[in-house]
Amino acid sequence: MRNIVNLNADWLFTKELLAIPTALPEGWEAVSVPHCWNAKDGQDGGNDYHRGTCLYAKSLKKADLPVSDLYFLEIQGANSSAKVYLNGKELAEHHGGYSTWRVDLTPALEDENLLVISVDNSANETVYPQMADFTFYGGLYRDVNLICVNDSHFDLEYYGAPGLKITPTVDGKDAKVEVEAFVKNLKEGQKLVFTIYDKEENELQKIEGTDSVVTFEIKDVHLWHGRRDPYLYCCEVEIVEGDEVLDNVCNRFGVRSFEIDAERGFILNGEEYALRGVSRHQDRWGVGNALTHQHHEEDIDLICEVGATTIRLAHYQHDQYFYDLCDEKGLVIWAEIPYISKHMPTGRENTISQMKELISQNYNHPSIVVWGLSNEISIGGSDNDLLENHRILNDLCHEMDKTRKTTIAAVSMCKMDDPYLQIPDVVSYNHYFGWYGGDTSMNGPWFDKFHAMHPSIPIGCSEYGCEALNWHTSDPRQGDYTEEYQAYYHEELIKQLFTRKYMWATHVWNMFDFGADARNEGGEDGQNHKGLVTFDRKYKKDSFYAYKAWLSDEPFVHICSKRYVDRVEDVTKITVYSNLPEVELFANGVSVGKKTAEDHFFYFDVKNEGETVLAAKAGDCTDESKIRKVEEFNEEYRLKEKGAILNWFDINAPEGRLSLNDKMSDIISTFRGKLLFAKLMGSMLGGGKKGEKKKAAGFDVTPEMMAMMGGFTALRLFTLMGGMMDVKFTKEQLLDINKKLNKIRKPKNKKK
Q1: DSSP alpha helix (H) spans, 642-730
Q2: Which residues are known catalytic residues?
Q3: Residue 590 is part of which domain span?
């Protein structure tokens, strides 16, 4: 019988690049797995976290192990390349930091053993990812097990797969379930026993024999129907000899059908089922990628609370335990490999192996409906090698899995007629109009234009969002990092995206703040703060409740801007979110009025005098906050970026004149402003050869890109573009540009 021995305890660890030891080393740090060596330095900014080869060592006594014919080491996550040594002998290596892989230890196993695993997260042009906006945490960061099996066993060496492949097909009110078992060394006199159980673990059917592929028929099948009814069956397969079970595997599965239609969106079991949800990175504050089951459970509970029906599990394979939770809770999943940002001609084989692992290990999860081929990979343009790589991956997905679709997440600058959009079954775009550039109003019309150009291609939004920290204002503006602007941004995006039925899925970027050690913005380095929830999962930002108002059936009411107490204005705007039809707001016990709002966003004007206790009531739900009248703006609410060359509030902006705080679209709409910035952009982009396309961060500066940049303020543009093209401006240079802008009148009918 199969025995699984957990090996998480009693490891020794070192960051020193040493020779592989043959005896238990002294002076190494004692650690337990899951373990991540970048749990702190991968989240504090500076892009200086430790990347290299680190060693883990552990002693194993054969006498302490179950008596078995074979012993397989199972590593569920080691980022990003790793090698396994037993008693000084190298047994295997693996490239790809997010999947399960196994190594047969049996031939090298002795009575006393030293197991050493070297893990390497250094730069490597053959292993993905190498360029992305998140920290590549190093470590043996998921469970490590020893699987002890009989010589006759279910295959443990095929791409980390469970040894069992379950393919349900809906047939009217019934279902056919094909089950394929992958068996090693089945001997004469041994048989396979396949059993199907319902959710309550009642045995439904059993098939015995030597065939490795069988088909069950389930009458009046209970369908897996997303959040509404995530019903799961279970299939167990045993290798039996006489009365003895030699090995067994068991997987849950759900029976469902789905379509993705270019007009009707996502269709589950014949019913339109809107996919509106979030993306998720797996890391945590102070933990990195070394998550516990409790961490995963908290994440799924928060995602369910917001009312999401779908998760994009970005940008890599996630923990099997989290996929299991998605099955149980009924979340519809986009699963993908880390083929991201930078196409590497030397990395093709790694994209293939990581895709094989992703599909092989996750085939039985009913929650997964699409395999993601890549993310923003065309940021440098689509050449023939990139296109061929995508065609190979797309064909591989369809060969390995005939039941699911393929997709990509394309970057904003990718033209609508780019040939690589024609490769997958469905397409999504990452757009940040209203944050990195453009206006919030550009999002819906952009998708309408794509839909008109490609009426047969299902289109979705795979990323959209903006950053928010504990900064506050009554006058939110794009790029200010306030909780108020993030709330406004998501209000606008919800109204635009959720009302377009043809969009097959939308995924907020991101459910949680996450580690990005190269980032230096918002006043807190080392993080991307686009989450609806903070990195430590302790604070739900106002935008969390904007989604809850649209997506959740759980009655609630929420007053926004609770952390913004001190206010200077005599009358202040109070925003309330609720999924109930009517909200009444009280100020110091006196009703301000009742409001109804079809969009679930309720706005009140409240007199700001002394200290005011606010109370919102919707149905039986209540919420409270307070505001306080002050004479001067509380500077603790205003972002002052550390190391910023120039903050926006330090810029002279005379009434009626342009400044660095104005949007590029307004500046270049004036003749003098256009001339000034044509000259400046020319110097930034360099004097290339005639006809040669200008590039920034490896991609072409196209009209589409420049139109998107129109929503940037000039100051933000210089900050971001300067970094992209390695051009640094001094404070004096920026102030000189501002002085020139101050001489130019603002365009008529344009507000700052």
Answers
A1: 664-667, 671-685, 703-709, 714-724
A2: 376
A3: 566-635
